[in-house]
Amino acid sequence: MRHTFSTFETGNTFTEEKQVMEARAITKNARISAFKTRHVTRLIQGKTATEALRMVELMPRKAARLVAETLKSAIANAENNERGENVKVADLVVKTAQVGEGQTLRRFRPKARGSAGRIRKRSSNIRIEVATATLAEEKK
């Protein structure tokens, strides 16, 4: 992705172009609720990819395992992109880490007097985008 930034100095206008590398990974219908997964994704947003991966791998949660899997995939997508650019893992920053609700399985459990209680088995869609560190710094 190519971003153009313009700067004004003493009336002269010039533009400078910078190559920015972005990659993303999406895990759909992960069998954990989005509420539980958002606790993990809030912690890694804005961190470097290596730091975020270290944090997630040390957390004793199922959501952390699923987020780590998606983060590793996003890093691999950045390294092996179709443009053939050489991107180092140390240069990558977690740009966004979003969790949305996926499909909900509805099950019923028998209750007293012939009624049924609803059980919702929730799932979530995890989306992680990584970008080179220069883009993250410029957007702040």
What does this protein look like?
- This protein is α+β, with helices and mostly antiparallel strands and 140 residues long.
- The chain has a single domain, classed as Ribosomal protein L22/L17 (Ribosomal Protein L22, Chain A, Alpha-Beta Complex).
- Helices cover 33% and strands 40% of the residues.
- The protein is built from four helices and seven strands; from the N terminus they run βββαααββββα.
- It has helices at residues 34-44, 49-58, 62-79, 133-139, and strands spanning 2-9, 12-19, 22-30, 92-101, 105-110, 116-121, 124-132.
- A three-stranded antiparallel beta sheet has the order 3-7-4. A two-stranded antiparallel sheet has the order 1-2. Strands 5-6 form a two-stranded antiparallel ribbon.
- A hairpin with a 2-residue loop joins strand 1 (2-9) and strand 2.
- Helix 2 (49-58) packs antiparallel against helix 3 (62-79).
- The radius of gyration is 20 Å and the shape is elongated.
- The two termini are 18 Å apart.
